[in-house]
Design a protein that fits this description.
Helix content is 84%, strand content 0%. With 140 residues, the chain is an all-alpha fold. The longest helix is centred in the last third of the chain and has 26 residues, at 114-139.
């Protein structure tokens, strides 16, 4: 069952990223940013479920990455954990923007430039790639 859930989360994550890219091309920047956030959140949750068999109750991509990194470190995968930390440091500003999208889309008005959303999409795509490598490193 959890394998099915992991695949479902990964599939939804890919579809949200595709939707975000489509919305970006059509000029729907706020909805594109929200879709990209959802993609990242679901993709990290898929890795958490696959590796740890659990998903913490959180919406923050940075928080979810922190949980994944800490649990991998505890389990003896310090090198893999370091890659997640390095990614989070490198893309800190974009990840902060992604996390703010979740709240701002519900409670405030916000705007992003096309360049902002393109950067979020790039970071999301790179996050997908990183997490595939993380899963292979940990689970083979």
């Amino acid at each position: 069952m959890s394998g099915e859930r992991v695949n479902l989360l990964k599939s939804r994550s890919r579809r949200f990223l595709e939707l975000g890219s489509e919305l970006l091309q059509r000029g729907g920047l706020e909805l594109a940013a929200f879709s990209i956030h959802q993609s990242c959140q679901l993709r990290v949750e898929a890795s958490l479920l696959r590796i740890l068999s659990e998903i913490p109750r959180a919406h923050s991509v940075r928080e979810l990455l922190g949980v994944l990194s800490a649990k991998l470190d505890e389990a003896g995968f310090a090198e893999v954990s370091a890659k997640i930390k390095d990614f989070a440091k490198l893309y800190r500003d974009a990840l902060v923007d992604l996390d703010s999208v979740y709240t701002m889309s519900r409670y405030t008005f916000f705007t992003f430039t096309r360049g902002d959303v393109e950067k979020l999409a790039q970071v999301c795509s790179e996050l997908h790639s990183l997490l595939e490598k993380v899963e292979k490193s940990v689970l083979g």
